[in-house]
Structure formats: structure tokens, C-alpha cells
Amino acid sequence: MWDGKLKKWERTWKVDVKTAKDIMYWSSNIDGLLENEIKEMTGINEVPGFWQTWILTVGEFVTNQTIDPKLSSSEPINSNYMHSSGDADTPLRAPRLAVCSRPGCKNFIIFENGLRCISCDLEYQVTKSTRLVWFGLFIHDIEGLDTIVKHLNQFGAIPGHPIIRKNGRRYLLIPVNAFYPIAWPAKQPMVHYAKGIFTLPRIEWDKVNANYHMHKFGMMCLYTGISSGFNSYQESTMKDVLVKRALGHSNKLLKYCNGDMGAFLRVSPI
Prior knowledge:
19% of the residues lie in helices and 17% in strands.
């Protein structure tokens, strides 16, 4: 698990697209799809509210839709699943961001000459539940959110959620894991909060709640689903999902925690 410290790695790397495509499964044979995703996400730091660096990594996302990572991307999975409503996959247990398994390391996994630790280069072992995921931080001004500020003053900073100061104002950094589903882009990405944010008032980690648009395990409900009679998801890039949906969700979530119980009733993006 990320320890919440804003580390600066004295290294750069070029994403090993071939290895990443092996994990993306059926989408991997669509020319230029992943390359375009990486290009778009590289520029996401120019969008207000996004931390400067987002990392393409992997995580373990266990659903009833699993595949053998050794299968060729040309081999079909359940066609009803691939072409169904577009609803997000529902995790059977809490998704987790992959970290290095070497004792004492526990650092990020990156795509460089395969899939390995950013610090010690130990290779990461892919499983049937391994998914591509972008890890990054949303930046939220918490001045004026008096209930949240009082909570933080009373109980201390949220583990893994740094607070920074700029021009006399306080900003809460919210970690986000944005998972690609097996059948992306036909299915919508699954965007998750880290568990720590659920120490704030009025929200729960392990419950579905329509009042603040949340599935279990901190998964944002970003689109209307097939159960409502209309699915609002259309094939999108991950950047579009994060910018147009997820950032607004986190903004409204903070307002809800601060006591604005109607925050999610308004249709504005923020």
C-alpha cells in the first residue's frame, strides 16, 4: 500500500507498451489504443485538480470475470460480457494496487523492460486478476470545508492523504486508482478511492450508498447503469473519465462529508 509520502524518484522510464498490452487482453490488438491512452494521461497534469505525475501500473481486481494472462489477446472471452450494458465490473473483494513483494521494499510496480519494481527491479508476477491501473492524486482546496478541517485537526491527517499548503491555503491530496476492465473500452473503467478517505464523516468503505454514489470498497459510481433502464457510459478514454466524472465525484464527496447532503443531487460536474 502507498505510504502517502510524496517521493521523488531520480529516474525516468519509457513505458514497456508490449508488456502492458499483454495485460490489457482483448483491447491489445486495437492499433494505437494503449499508446493513445498513455499520451493523453501524460498530459493530465495540465488539468486543474490533478497532481503532476500519474503512473501506469497494475493492481489486483478480483471479479467473476477473470482470464488466464497467458491467453492470446485474439482469443474471445464471454461475448455477452464484452458487449453487455457497459456497467462497471463489481469487485468481489477490495481491489489493491500492486507493490513490490521484496521485504522492506513495497514500492511501485512500473512497466520498464517488463513489469518490475521502480526501486529494486524485482519482477512482478502477473495473476488472473491483474489489471492495468493508473495511480495518481486529486488536489482539493479544503479551505471553507469547516467540518472536514475540524475533523483533520481533531484526528490528524488521513493516512496516505497528504495535506499541502500553497499561498496560505490547504489542499488535500486524494489517491485514486483507476482500473481498466477486461473488456475496455466497451466496459467503463473502475475508479477507486483509497480506504483512508472513509475515515471522514458520513461515508463508509464497505457499503453501497446511493446518497453519495458509491459502490463497495470505495468504487465511484460514475454512470447510470442498466438497472435504471439506460446506461450513460459511452466508450471513453481514461482521461475523459477522470476529468469529466471522477474529479467531480471527489469534489462532491468532500462537500457531502462536510455536511452538504444534497451534493450529489446537483448535475453539475463539480
